[in-house]
Fold these 4 entries.
Entry 1:
Amino acid sequence: MATTDQEVNELIKREYEHGFVTEIEVDTFEPGLNEDVVTRLSEIKKEPEFMLEWRLKAYRRWLEMEEPEWAHVGYPKIDYNAISYYSAPKRKEDMPQSLDDVDPELLKTYEKLGIPLHERAKLAGVAVDAVFDSVSVATTFKEPLAKAGVIFCSISEAMRDHPELVKKYLGTVVPHTDNYFAGLNSAVFSDGTFVYVPKGVRCPMELSTYFRINAANTGQFERTLIIADEGSYVSYLEGCTAPMRDENQLHAAVVELVALDDAQIKYSTVQNWYPGDENGKGGIYNFVTKRAACIGKNSKVSWTQVETGSAVTWKYPSCILRGDNSVGEFYSVALTHNHQQADTGTKMIHLGKNTSSTIISKGISAGKSSNAYRGLVKFGPRAEGARNFTQCDSLLIGDRCGAHTFPYIESLNKSAIVEHEATTSKVSDEQMFLCRQRGIDPERAVSMIVNGFCKEVFKELPMEFAVEAGKLLEVSLEGSVG
Amino acid sequence: MLSIKNLHASVEGKEILKGINLEIKAGEVHAIMGPNGSGKSTLSQVLAGNDAFEVTSGEVTLNGENLLEKETEERAREGVFLAFQYPVEIPGVSNLQFMRTAVNAMRHHKGEPEMNAAEFMKLAREVSKQVDLDPAFLKRGVNEGFSGGEKKRNEIMQALLLQPKLAILDETDSGLDIDALKVVSDGVNALRAQDRAILMVTHYQRLLDHIVPDYVHVLADGKIVKSGGRELALELEERGYGWLGIKEDATEASSAN
Ligand SMILES: Nc1ncnc2c1ncn2[C@@H]1O[C@H](COP(=O)(O)OP(=O)(O)O)[C@@H](O)[C@H]1O
Ligand SMILES: [Mg+2]
């Protein structure tokens, strides 16, 4: 049966259903990056003084840094002076006081994306922070959350209303010196989400941020900071889309998670940025630094990601397991198609005693895409009894795509235990024939086989989003069989 | 129902089927016997539309319609079912989900409403009992870690669920112990119906003790060399293939089964 091998070569249209542009009045900075731009950005956001200094320090350091080239991806050099660092919908007030203040065009945009923000139509049990280009435009369910003591707001608001928390934690997990894109983000980040869950509180609902890039030639540099105080629990989900544009757009985000004693953070991502067309034109460059610090004992952070979009993805959600008995988990599905490139994985840094980590990575490549897993598991000298389990599975659809695995292990403690399993498989002609012989469409068959391959990761997603993720894979795989 | 005329097929440039002629009417059960490597599986796969095999000449019609020009899934939806000799595993896809997707594909084709998960679960549990398969198998990945016998029972279960017009059973009896053989045979007998044709490929006559065929054909080197009633099977049992001038095994030992 030649379906998967031969007909896959006739890769056809891949429909990206979020590719529309919202016509809306915006305030946009002229392209270009200098100290003045950083200062204006801080001013326009009415940030406290310490933030401006923080940004400028990061900016000066960034100028001395080099763009990394070690990842298994290739893209033309980015001209950082051709990008605009701020674009926001115009509005009367500085902050949307309520949803009534939000431009109806914007509300329509989110509705079209399946994220209704209106009180009546809101996603049941999920509070949403909607970030449009450089600013947060709406946050739902603020009141019930406030009653529980949970702070859920844009990071701009947090800098004004909770400067002590921001000052205490911002940059402690991902310092501006960490890497090139984190340095850039620290200088120019425009908005993002802030979450604080107080001691002993189990956040009463899922929290989520929905990121949307709309403006052309604008970078999105969001910054997310989540702090789970002692004994608290929070589950957070982010979703992302962008219009179809022929130019590449840069998205360089930083996410910092802090888990104190006995706290748990579950962070899930469904990333569906515009991947470019079937010839590799356009698409988002997704260069993201996500890191969690399990600073408290018995704390736990789980990263679950479903990555189907972007032209180039460079992303390694990581855990620093400092607290004794702390737990880090990374569950990932990364799907690449057409000319997409993904270099993704995780770092698990075991510092505390009896820390444990689990890595389950599922890479799916179709078309001419390239998909790499890069993982580092490190055990510090104090990490007595620490252990890691890693499983990396690659699935190939067709014969012109590639899968690569780069596992690194560094151990400074003899008692540490590492288990590593890796497999590479294909959607076989026999599997396809069996499905089709039972009357199942070839496309449905591929998506079913791929979903089966991803099952261990999907079961980690919050219920509402597991179904979504399955559907997203189906759409993303469109045209992968003839 | 099924009419095969002068069917030639090859794989990787090598001719395997060298002019098959066969007529099967609704309600009939035909057995195809023959040594290893004679082309039994090839015939089954060609009928089901596996395009690893190339049909070089000949004609196949199902209820008057040209089968060969249809895609595998179209043939399936029109009632062609193949129980595989070596069912493949699909890790992570639950048997239940797989079967429901298949059943719903058929229902969709017939313009019937799809079955929801609860409705299908009920049906699947009943049918799994019929083939003596623990309902726990429904939750497992398709054929994932199934024993040989479990795979075969799983195939028969799918035939019972899909209620095909033409059921092709490729060595559904091989590798089964006596009890499992009984279960599988009962399943096949339950499939027997006025409006259904069954083409049973088998290596051993023992299956035919349980499922009495209307006709028996002997396939050797890609051709049907002898046809008869069920007494032909008994004769083969007694005398082997030698008296027909056929070598016992047409392939290397590795393909034996
Ligand atoms: N995919 C294939 N590639 C190459 N040769 C094949 C393939 N399938 C079957 N054959 C060959 O075709 C002949 C008939 O095989 P098969 O139809 O499986 O016989 P049977 O089922 O009667 O044992 C054998 O010589 C076998 O080696
Ligand atoms: Mg065979």
Note: Residues 335 and 364 of chain A are 5 Å apart (CA to CA).
Entry 2:
Amino acid sequence: MKKIKIIQYINNSNVSRFRTIIQIAFFVLFVYGGYFFINIGQNLPTFACPYNPGSSGTCYLISAQHNLHITWEQLVSFRGLGFITGLGSFVLFFIIFNKAWCGYACPLGTIQDWITRLRKLTLTRFSHYDEVSFKRLSKVKYVFLVLLILIPLGMSNSFFGLPEISDDMGAPFCQICPGRTILPLFSGDTSQLFIDFTTKTTMVMSSLGILFMALFFVGSFFKKRFFCFFCPMSALQYLFSKIGVLRLVKDGSKCTRCGNCSRVCDVGITAIADDITSKNIVKDDCMMCFKCVEACPEKGALDVKVFNFKIFSSTEEGFFKRYGQGDSLTSKKKKDD
Amino acid sequence: MINATNQDRYNRLKKTSTIHYNMEVNQVLSEIMDDFPDKISGMEYFYNKFKPLEIGESLYPKDKKLIASMCIHVPIEIIHALDATAVRICSGAYSADTAGSDFLPAKTCPMVKSTLGALYLDMLPGNAIPDLVINPTTCDQKKKMGEMGDEIDKEFYVLEVPPSKDSEEARQYWQRTIKKLVKKLEKCTGNRLTRGKLKKSIKTIAQAQSEYRRFMRLRKEAPVIFGKDALLIANAYFFDDITCWTQNLAILNDELEERIENNLMVIKSRTPRILLTGSPSIFPNMRTPILIEKLGGIVVYEEFCSSSRMLSDTVAVDEWFLYDMVPAIADRYLKPSTCPNFTPNDDRIRKILLAMDDYKVDGVVYQTFTGCQLYDMEARKIGKALEEAGYPVLNVELDYNPKDSGQLTTRLEAFLESIKDNKRNT
Ligand code: SF4
Ligand code: SF4
Ligand code: SF4
């Protein structure tokens, strides 16, 4: 009886509110944790940006770019091991929360959600896009991912006899990453906001960095999680999402394809409603925020699981608690359904 | 416009039709109320909603516009938010069928004929006089009937429903249709749609749905109420005040919960459990469910646009502003709909199959009105899917004339017997 009560309580709860709080906690941890001598690790699957003096860890993307700034010979020698162990620890971190790193922990994701709140406060409506072409465009994240692997390798090696890429490329993605420009601002550090005129390459890259920062702000004001569509971290994470411990599963037989889930999804995933055959329903843009589960009125159509253990499920009662404001579902004598 | 020479004929027709209607209503009501042993006091409220019609004043608030709708695809959240009364006028009255026949080909579906007749003769529930009739294009006969507004002196508004619901194009088209409807209704009512009012009306209807779903959960749990009563409850939603309806359903639900606790079932455990689907049963056309239950079955689930399909699907809004609420409402009336005017309509098969399992159904009765092509055409596919899943299906065809029940009775009887035999053997 007690157990049923707890399950009922959780399924009726407002996960989005809980998420807002967790996001703040993670934001403080990743952006200011360094000041409290917290160091979580080198290979975090989220934007804990070391350019930010307060950061309590290091984003895996920068580690990966450094680890790959090696020659072919080194790659197959013990230095290549650095890459393997780096990737290994990234995967270990990642699979615990799966893509919920994006929904709950990533500081850049959190900032975008705050910008969305700001938009709502200004009563501005979100923009509509041609979703099909936008989705196609968002495949750019895989291009970013491939480039951030190939360019560092190209700095130490020559591809097909071409000259090596200039070392000015440094960690190339970091140079254009809005995390590098934005996150230090929260520690009061504006030193990343400049254009580096040293060489042509640095000039182009640092200008792109400023441009992407501007796009980040403008884009996410008009479209929820705009940057996430192009985020190479998300692309890399998705490669390992299938082995995640935290899972989002669907039972298509219980789904009416009402579309509630996809219409509340911040990243506009349509498969969550339309796909009635897949069990694992995490798509590459999904950030495991579980708003879809909150919006689904069909019992057990969507479940959040840790391994095979349900921790949050869609229920009628929960739906109406959240969307109908009504508690008429629970009469005087409570029925556990 | 009805001219003076015809006025006399009109008056006479209205008078006789009303007398027939009242006889029909009394007959069906007494069957529903008196021919069954169960007495659920919470049902009184709903029975009282179906009193015979008295010619006279409209029972609806005079200061509000009355918007009639002809199908579940009309978003009543919007009508309520604009301070208008929403009444669904799809009619089940045989007595109005004849009047409608004057305007329509003989082979037209009786529901369409009856609805047109009832509109023409002003024989709508509570003497409703609609200021506007919203007519969704969900079947060819209704579509064409909507062109007869001039003849019967009523204003029709065509609500363009896309023929398919799966594509993004259809969704966009429908969202625009609904936006256009908002404009039309704002003009008709003279009120403006506001954020606060729409939010409130979404919540009001969500509460009605939540109560209805609770009702369905109780039915799933145990056979505490007959299908004929369940249908009446849903039918009352057509024209009742939604808050009153919800409150009274809550009272009934509490009573049913108590009955479950005290093990007061309306049937014995061996009774065949039937799922009823197809052309919608609308009061007073309750022949099929009443017959099934008189012959010793129980209807445990109705997959009808006059019941579960109207009341189950919900609105989910992400940003509670008009720019997101209106499309959210549009989505709710399109995407989960299992109306056979959509192609493909596999969702209907899936819904029925899930209900078979959930409600432990023994067999399906598929009802088609003579002349209703869409339900007729889907009968085959659905029958096949059900048979593959191992369930017996009975297809019945009927019109609104209560006189020819003989064959229907024999067939239902045989069907129920065979299910009983099966149950006994397992
Ligand atoms: S997609 Fe990228 S920016 Fe967005 S939350 Fe995930 S890691 Fe952060
Ligand atoms: S909200 Fe639930 S029932 Fe509706 S489409 Fe999504 S998963 Fe299916
Ligand atoms: S699919 Fe669900 S969990 Fe994933 S981003 Fe969309 S709403 Fe969140």
Note: Chain B touches chain A through 39 residues (CB under 8 Å).
Entry 3:
Amino acid sequence: MKLSGGDMLLRALREEGVKFIFGYPGGAALHIYDAIFRQKKIEHILVRHEQGATHAADGYARATGKPGVVFVTSGPGATNAITGLATAFMDSIPLVVISGQVASHLIGTDSFQETDMMGVSRPIVKHSYLVQKTEDIPAIISEAFHVATTGRPGPVVIDIPKDITAPENKFEYKKPVKVNLRSYQPKIHPHPGQIKKAAKAILSSERPVIYAGGGAIISNASKQLKALNKILNIPVTNTLMGLGSYPAKDKHFMGMLGMHGTYQANMAMHKADLILAIGARFDDRITNTPSKFAPDARIIHIDVDPASISKIINADIPIVGQVKESLDALIKEIKRSKIKIDSEAIGKWNKQITEWTQLHGLDHEMYLKKSKSKMIKPQEVVQQIYQATKGDAYVTSDVGQHQMFAAQYYHFNKPRRWINSGGLGTMGFGLPAAMGVKLAFPKKEVVCITGEGSIQMCIQELSTCLQYGLPVKIININNQALGMVRQWQDMQYSGRYAASTYEESLPDFVKLAEAYGHKGFKVTQRNKLGPTLEKVFRMKDKLVFVDVYVDQSEHVYPMLVAPNGSMEDMWLSKGKKA
Amino acid sequence: MKRVLAMLVENKPGALARVVGLFHQRGYNIESLNVAPVDDGSYSRLTVSTRGTESAVEQIMKQINKLIDIIKVADLTEGEHHELELALIKLGKIKDLKSIKKKIKPLNGKVIKNDSSSCVLSVTGTSIDINNLIKSLKRNKIIETVRSGSIGLHESNKTLTI
Ligand SMILES: Cc1ncc(C[n+]2csc(CCOP(=O)(O)OP(=O)(O)O)c2C)c(N)n1
Ligand SMILES: [Mg+2]
């Protein structure tokens, strides 16, 4: 049977197993939208802004591990998708973003709503395609999904001129054969020689640390990570992106590391004699000053992307391969090895970590029980959410202090539960991402921990939530300020709060939620927080917006001292360094 | 240190822009760039001259390799290689053709055209040879120069092919 380009596109997406498309129509995409109307298998979610579509697809992808799909029109539709593309690119999230383009004969003429999407998106996509022939659609879609999801995943753009999807031009649909690109053959299995070297180095170390990042989650390697440490019994830390890849409740877990990492995690990295980096990329928010990073450590670096290895910190033993396959091989090699790890040294090292934890570790009681403060502390909000959701929710977040508090105080025991924009730090990510997660897992609790600054960047999606019945819970940690900006202004600009407050202009979020057809609560008193949250999480089929007023003066600690600090240089509280 | 990188790139729309864009994005300079389809025409061979430390060049090569349309990349300067550049030089009216011919002879030079108003030369050689030649022609009036940028390939037994 012959199909139009639009119908081919929908059929090809169906063959890729796509269930949802997040999008927004417009002139150049109308043939495609008409094709959506002609089918029933894929549900289209109409967002209220294309940024929301990209973040929703991204949240869906992070929670499920499957690629998120987005439709936008040309020009402003395409440019509105750029922030979401950059967000997904930085965190290696598979997206397929399909943009309508002006008709082929108009390209290059500055025609109405023409933007060079291929050019504009080039530095923030893994790859992109301009469709030049309708018959190519099935092959391009299958190649795009292959590229987006394999190796180091990432977003892919497919730009389709309007004439390509015209209903009157029909062609035979040729089912594509298996994708095989001579120019793209991502490595899966690690080099056995490198695995041998790594095993030997680990087993001869005395102060080893496992430093696992987002790659461990993307590669679905949590089981391997746990199995590895069942043998080794060494301290583990996760990056912001890696939280949940190793269970927070495990006794070897030190918490997050880096800029706002725990004292013990940062100290352990600095004093380690061996760092096993797994799917992590030595981001500047981790290493602090690279020349002062972990002076005594040998570095083993496992990553699927060779370009991530020795980019910032030189790796002594580089291992290129999928995290999962590499850990499988490493576990096997360690089991086979005749060298045994020095359990006495490891015992001493673990004791040292415990001492650090006792000395300056995050106090998980302080806010919840001991605090005499009348004002609600932001940390306590996260702790109360943790209790009310029994630690089993999907938590999305935005960017700022609330995000760091969520990362520190919500203990993630499972992968893909913590959904945040780590690399780009995109305010506005949380709510649309929560929509994507809720669509994927309608029965699961989905919480968006946000700030009054961030939530206003994509607040329009409250309307989408009503249309599709997405009862996510939004907890707005309202410090009446761009808190993270304010914290830096406190610490580095003598408290000159340039453009970080709103001067009484904040909306009434309860009324706002109600105006969008949802439920809203405002909490200002400490003793009301717990009971309100208990009530809110019992309201299963309602979107509830909880506006929690918190102490504005609170800072996020620990915090690495910058510039020129090492990982052991930390602020532990206001004015107090380690 | 100067590096000469050779790449095989799929002949697809936008592929060259991806390579050039990458250099800019990652903060590297392109000193010269040469590109043309080779073999069956399904891919092109690029030669890029750049400057950088060993680790910087290693990083840029890894990033280039990551581009989906890149089939292969190699640093020719890592070992023995042949490197050549073509230049066309237009001079103003010359008095002493003989001495010009002598100067360009080692560079396989040819006088393509010579009349009462100008003289056009073609030369091939390494970039350094051509730099030196241009310096030595200073006393003549150089009206216009065009250079192809270096092209290069490995010494005999090493190759960069599909
Ligand atoms: C789109 C975007 N613009 C600006 C920033 C810079 N920025 C980082 S945190 C922050 C403040 C966020 O305020 P809020 O959402 O209220 O969170 P808080 O820090 O107060 O918890 C800003 C402006 C950003 N990360 N993203
Ligand atoms: Mg705030």
Note: The two ends of chain B are 28 Å apart (CA to CA).
Entry 4:
Amino acid sequence: MTPFAALLERLLFTPGRLAKIALLRDYFAHTPDPDRGYALAAIAGDLSFVAAKPAMIREITMARVDATLFEWSYDYVGDLAETVALIWPDTAPGVAPRLSEVVDALHDTSKAALPARIAGWLDLCDPSERIALLKLITGGLRVGASARLAKIALGEMAGLPADDIEEVWHGLLPPYLPLFDWLEGRAPKPDAAGAPVFRPTMLAHPLEEADAASIDWDAFRAEWKWDGIRVQLVATSGGKRLYTRTAEDISHAFPEILAAMHFLGVLDGELLVLRDGQVAPFADLQQRLNRKSPTAKMLAEFPAAVRLYDILFDGDEDLRALPFDARRQRLEAWYAQENPERMDLSPLIDFAGPEDLAQLRLGARAASIEGLMLKRGDAPYLAGRPKGPWWKWKRDPLSIDAVLMYAQRGHGRRSSIYSDYTFGLWRDDGVLVPVGKAYSGITDQELNFLDSWVRNHTTSRFGPVREVEKALVLEIIFDAAQLSTRHKSGVALRFPRISRIRTDKPAAEADRLSSLMARVVRSGIAKGETLVEAPAAAN
Amino acid sequence: MVVPHPETWLRVLPQGLYCEPGGFFIDPLRAVDRAVITHGHSDHARAGHQAVLATPDTLAIMRARMGAERAGESQQPLAYGEPLDIRGVQVTLRPAGHVLGSAQIVMEWRGSRAVVSGDYKRQDDPTCAPFEPVECDVFVTEATFGFPVFRHPPPAHEIAKLLKSLALFPERTHVIGAYSLGKSQRVIALLREAGWDGPIYIHGALTSLCALYEERGVRLGDLRAATAAKKEVLKGAIVVAPPAACADRWGRRLNDPVIARASGWMRVRQRAKMAGVELPMIISDHADWDDLLRSIAEAQAPEVWVTHGSEEALIHALSLRQIRGRALRLVGYEGEEPGEEAPDERASAPPEPGDHLPPVAEGAA
Ligand SMILES: [Zn+2]
Ligand SMILES: [Zn+2]
């Protein structure tokens, strides 16, 4: 329990991703089997046993602690496990049980014997170990790290990409001894035959001007870059899964997609909310992504679909070594035969040359499109982000000049700096209304400038938020503007970020809300409908 | 002769706790003619008294912090254990183990003995003399950590956490937020005990007090000015600074710092989170719950007065032990970090939605 408790405590207070990975890596490298495997299972949410009830924990505590003192303490601390952990009398100094000992015992301790068993452990633990133990056995463990982060740490430990671990992951069970044996070179790679494992995704580089100049355009195919999330559909004899491109299993959040997977194979595509063939704004998909398991109402209101653009496996035939053109043919043939519900094909775009494409990209202002994807016709499907075969060519962002209204301190390393900015636009009646929040886009120097500007122009404070004089103009760039009933202004910006601080511009000359509303794209694009507006109309 | 109960000769006045026959106040909250001072923290040792009696170390600390002229018109040093008669009241100072020079005030009048312990702790502290229990009729105690959830681990355990973090993140500057009088020097001395003999970088606010500790015989080793040091030099270094400085611009200059904080409040995770601390170190110069009860038991007093802190839980616990407890509710003493929090909105910031905000112990900010 001791190293596991120390890890949990440190992760809880560590904001940085790299620091979390270092902590996990240190833990996995220095903790013996099978404890580290159970810790990995706890992080991945793969530990299962009958959870102890909070009422029982309270009861065994009350046998040792005055009830009044307990209630006052609980009131003060605000968390049951933590209160019990802190107030539990230090009676029998000893060595805390190992994590594996706890997990094993929870499997084979009878319900009647459980309270005495837990009390015995609590006696042997220090407060930090008690918190870990109590959170674990009551099922309330929140680890400040994802399964993905743990796999990255394991990969670093073994000198392997985390995706290699994903490939074998779903065939394994806690405490994952074959995994650790493989990572430490004692055994071959575990065989994930038949399991619906994630396959490492192929990613694109952003196309910069220099790249565009040297590209062999004839070798490339073009697709729209859809504004949803990249997913991988996996259906094997061992089961069905829907993964994000970081291997997160989101099957439970999208049961309608799972239900439509009657085939065997692995496909790559974009998850979207699609209504009557029209792509809904990203905010709609966000509603679904926020829910672990959707209600019937949400399923009806925000119907999900997948727009397919690649095939990795047809049945158990691995197609990844085939060139893109051949895979595309296989995809089309596969689609014609299977014709799965809630799925369609992302069309290839005809183009004559780079000018043609540039024009298409400039005009691509539909809310559902982020730009273009360029894929080499002769390139195999490669894991990771190889430079050259795939490019993403995002359309230029839109921009507005907005007025800084509020600032809030950031989190973690930025917790002492006003780094979150709410900005607004003028309504026609002269009222400034907030339209969005931006956290990024500026240099450290600009950040310092804004931080002291905020401190020197504060008009009032609400906790961590400062309201400022309506005097500073920020140039905000964003990818799209979408109608939103959840925003006071009626409009939501996609990916707003600060591009410049316009100290040169008087606040009164900032943009009006009406000019932003004019750029709102009111609906998605229907299948087959033209996706292009004249560039002039877009800006 | 009937022995007078201390409540007949010790009174709570607006200026603070007053020994009537002796004609002096203990740690008065405003300027008075005669003051006996337990220790140098600013909420106990205030400026502008006429006559001040305290240990030589406490007087030195007062002069260093407020200037000789404001540290009392006349200053009378009294060593630990030497009895002094003040108008028939015998006054003796006994170590309180809180910070350098900290003392309990033992007063005897007509066969009745009261002990005002000031702020105190029972854990080992290489920078000051250990607490000496004194039997008495009334024991006057603080209750900064007067909740049973506050149990301080051995400080060496907390120092080990920091050293482990340094080994894991050798590029990052580790900044320990610690109150400038007492805590800082204790943390430095604990690091030395743990074998860290490299330089320790200190914030400017600590310079004169660390020098004073050194002068008075507390070895702190190689200390260097953090503000003058180059960012590059501070990679993997230990910096000690007042908590407010860590969170503010000063701390931002450092190299991807690990913000640590040495405080008893770090025991409760939500409080540590709210303080924006990455490495909480539960190190306190105040007695924890168990040590409050232990000290009270050792004083063998049938009656206990609580000056400040969370007295409600403590008085309840005393009632379970058939000890009479009384809250003096002296307003003006602070908890662990007197006057240290920046006048920032941090303390008044509302919790994020969904966060549970524990009630703040009186005077704990
Ligand atoms: Zn003090
Ligand atoms: Zn105090």
Note: Confidence is low (pLDDT under 50) at residues 522-539 of chain A.
